[in-house]
Automatic annotation (TrEMBL):
HTH cro/C1-type domain boundaries: 12-66
Highest taxon listed in the record's lineage: Bacteria
Name listed for the protein in its UniProt record: Transcriptional regulator with XRE-family HTH domain
CDD domains found in the cross-reference section: HTH_XRE (cd00093)
Lineage: Bacteria, Bacillati, Actinomycetota, Actinomycetes, Pseudonocardiales
GO molecular function, one term: DNA binding
Taxonomic source organism: Actinocrispum wychmicini
InterPro entries noted in UniProt: Cro/C1-type_HTH, Lambda_DNA-bd_dom_sf, MLTR_LBD
């Protein structure tokens, strides 16, 4: 079966609409005429390679999808996708390991664009303790482990609140990427049972995850870091999530 490549103009229009920009908004932002942008989107004008990359940059299109735009326009992809173990990725690996080690004794993990765990420090075991082996088998999906009834969910005290946070975060990612795999993941996670469906309305300044760890209640909030100037698809899609103590009990437990 032959797959039909969608026109580059149609793809650019879809990315513009995902970013909730009008043609006028994007033309001003990209410093091109609205007429020319309209011609590109409708296929009346064939964009140059530089124009495709320029519009993709203004639309903040992920590198993987920039390659798809180039292919749709008849140009060769420009962004490589290196294995994380490749020699040229040594500085990236070193930076990741430094961040993970520097987070000790607090948990931190590295995830790809679909929330599969790539690397982690030893303290991430706080979240995986007691989780069945089948959920931890590579590629281990962090969201699935968190919300699966047999996973961490059974130890999350504020499951309704944390579930709403994760599903909202994933839903926003689906909206801006149109990733079919992420959509399937969202539908799977949303179908998991939850006896505490409504978020708790507390006075926290961040949404914490509160878990039972043996006879102690631990609370964390997280930050997410990405590489600021990626030129490789693998690097572009990595994110490092770090978990910090949200109360004194957790801080003292981890630094004892």
């Amino acid at each position: 079966m032959t797959l039909t490549q969608r026109p580059v103009g149609e793809l650019l229009r879809q990315w513009r609409e995902r970013r909730r920009l009008s043609q006028l908004d994007l033309s001003i932002q990209a410093d091109i005429s609205t007429r020319h942008l309209s011609f590109v989107e409708t296929g009346r004008s064939a964009p140059s390679r530089d124009m495709v990359l320029h519009l993709a940059d203004e639309l903040d299109v992920p590198l993987r999808d920039r390659n798809r735009l180039l292919l749709a326009a008849g140009y060769a992809p420009v962004y490589g996708e290196s294995d994380l173990d490749a020699p040229e990725m040594a500085p990236v690996r070193a930076a990741v390991r430094k961040i993970l080690a520097g987070m000790e004794p607090f948990p931190a993990g590295v995830f790809d664009r679909r929330w599969n765990l790539v690397d982690a420090n030893t303290q991430m075991s706080l979240f995986t303790e007691g989780v069945p082996a089948e959920l931890l088998a590579p590629p281990m999906n962090g969201l699935r482990v968190s919300l699966h009834p047999d996973g961490l969910a059974s130890r999350i005290i504020n499951l309704g609140e944390w579930r709403a946070h994760l599903l909202g975060r994933l839903r926003r990612e689906v909206a801006v990427t149109a990733d079919a795999v992420l959509m399937e993941l969202y539908e799977e996670l949303a179908a998991y049972p939850c006896e505490d469906p409504e978020p708790h309305l507390d006075n926290d300044v961040v949404v914490p995850i509160r878990i039972r760890h043996h006879d102690v209640e631990l609370a964390f909030f997280s930050t997410v870091a990405t590489f600021g100037t990626p030129a490789d698809i693998t690097v572009d899609e990595l994110s490092i999530e770090s978990f910090f103590p949200a109360d004194d009990v957790t801080s003292k437990f981890l630094t004892r």
